[in-house]
Specification:
The chain has 225 residues and is an alpha/beta fold. The strands form 2 sheets. A 7-stranded mixed beta sheet has the order 3-2-1-4-5-9-8, sandwiched between helices. It has a two-stranded antiparallel sheet with strand order 6-7. Helix 5 links the parallel strand 4 and strand 5. Helix 1 packs parallel to helix 4.
Length: 225
């Protein structure tokens, strides 16, 4: 099967920026208390292993590990995975694509996709959510974070590096609808205003959606067939 162009471009872009981006973003979570609250709630809910899919340089993986979550990271970029392994040698990081995860069915208690679906074009998003559904055990949780908006942003330069990255901004209702079609049940959402005052300014509102794969014996509406 031919690899989609967006995967090749995304991989190459993060390979090119891996070291600089990891150094810049490392302290971002410390400046965002509401984001940490979302992750704390997710950490309390999940049981069993969690995959941080699109883990980047591993900062979210390490944060969940610090909250007592058994977690490992997966990223498309081999260079980013090298950086993560070097920064957090006690944690597990693997190269992989969210379109075809090398994981067993129903093997995870949770999936974190923290600003990683933002590079996935709309036509591919149902397949990504189906893959998340496949690897989650019944009752498992999915936590998403993404930028809110209607128009994508295309970057050709990041930190002085030549890149080709699309950032797909989406409306929470649209994402929730796709999750429902994939068999998930929405459990919570938060939309916060863009942070304009910190060292990590944002252009758009930020959305956080928590969804659950129905427990065994329930359908997506919570009914017992």
């Amino acid at each position: 099967m031919t690899e989609p162009d967006f995967l090749r471009r995304t991989r190459a872009s993060y390979d090119a920026t891996a070291d600089d981006y990891a150094g810049w973003i490392r302290t971002e979570l410390a400046a965002k208390p509401l984001d940490r609250a979302v992750l704390a709630g997710f950490a309390e809910l999940v049981t069993g292993p969690v995959a941080d899919i699109g883990c980047g340089a591993g900062r979210m993986t390490a944060h969940l590990d610090g909250l007592g979550v058994p977690v490992f990271g997966i990223d498309l970029s081999p260079r980013v995975v090298e950086v993560a392994r070097r920064a957090y040698p006690g944690l597990r990081f693997e190269v992989g694509s969210m379109l075809a995860l090398d994981l067993e069915d129903a093997s995870l208690g949770g999936v974190l996709a923290w600003y990683s679906i933002i590079h996935v074009p709309d036509p591919e998003l149902p397949a990504v959510f189906a893959e998340f559904q496949r690897v989650l055990a019944p009752g498992g949780y999915l936590q998403l974070a993404f930028q809110v908006g209607d128009a994508p942003l295309h970057l050709t330069n990041a930190g002085g590096h030549e890149v080709s990255l699309d950032f797909h901004r989406r409306q929470p209702d649209r994402v929730a609808g796709l999750l429902g079609a994939a068999g998930f049940v929405e459990r919570a959402r938060m939309v916060r205003a863009p942070d304009e005052d910190s060292a990590f300014p944002e252009r758009t509102p930020q959305a956080f959606l928590l969804a659950r794969k129905p427990p065994a014996g329930q359908d997506a509406a919570g009914r017992h067939p």
